[in-house]
Amino acid sequence: MKKTSYLTVMGAVGRVTFFEIIRDKVLYNVLVCAVLLFGVGFLASRLTFIQPERVVLDFGLASVAISCAMIGIFTGATLMGKEFERRTIYVALSRPISKSQFVFGKFFGLNVVILVNWVLLSVSFIAVLLATGGEITKS
User: Which residues of 66-89 are buried (b: 16+ CB within 10 A; e: fewer)?
Assistant: First the structure.
């Protein structure tokens, strides 16, 4: 019997969790809400006279942070519950996987989804910021 490493098993569980969350409709609803907040920030920047890029900056940073938090809360809260509901946890734990490997793998997969969400929203936020005339400078 071949012995697998701790990180290999966690990576496999994390990869399955990543694709499971990507197929979830909650993720897309949160992303649509974040993009709508970018649009609201862009429109609100047209209503101000002093610093329109500051309005876009505030709306953009808030939408990225809120989106990542909502994904973490909504998908993370139901992650283990879905496993018990569909009874897939019994199949997974019947393999030579420890409970800690399974839980940490789920955690790793959720964090990768949040990281991908953060990168995508940050790139779109920077595009909206540059479209309004804002600058990206070192402070």
Answer: ebbebbeeebbeebeeebeeeeeb
